[in-house]
Amino acid sequence: MAEPMSAGSGGVLLGWPFLRTAKTIIDVSDGTICLDYHGEKYTFSIDEAMKKPMDVENLHSMDVIAPLVQEYLEEELLQEKFEGAEESRELEKEVAGWCQEI
């Protein structure tokens, strides 16, 4: 399955930049990735990178969403209790009517 090449796709595979691994050292035992890019060496610690969230903005959005979900669920629960109370009152009236008929 070949991906169509466009004029501006230089080094992109399936929509993502392709990692050139010719000068990349992945050391699983040390938990590091060493890249050599145009003579500059970059070393990444996988353990350290996994400890920190990559996208802090989305992490904070959870703090905004959670209270809204809680509020919605509480309102729904109160609405269900209210509707249940209405049904209970109607049932009590119906039972009282039956008792009076007997």
Question: How are the strands of the largest sheet arranged?
Answer: 3-4-5
DSSP summary, beta strand count: 5
**Number of helical segments with 4 or more residues:** 2
Q: Using only CA atoms, what is the Rg?
A: 31 Å
Helix percent reads: 40-55%
Order of helices and strands: EEEEEHH
- Major sheet characteristics: 3 strands, antiparallel
Structural class: alpha+beta
Contiguous uncertain segments of 5+ residues: none
- Termini distance? 81 Å
Rough shape?
rod-shaped
- Overall domain count: 2
Strand content: 15-25%
Mean pLDDT: 73
Can you tell me about this structure?
- The protein is of the alpha+beta class.
- It folds into two domains: 32 residues, no CATH class; 48 residues.
- The strands form two sheets. Strands 3-4-5 form a three-stranded antiparallel sheet. The chain has a two-stranded antiparallel ribbon with strand order 1-2.
- The relative contact order is 0.05.
- The model has no long low-confidence stretch (mean pLDDT 73).
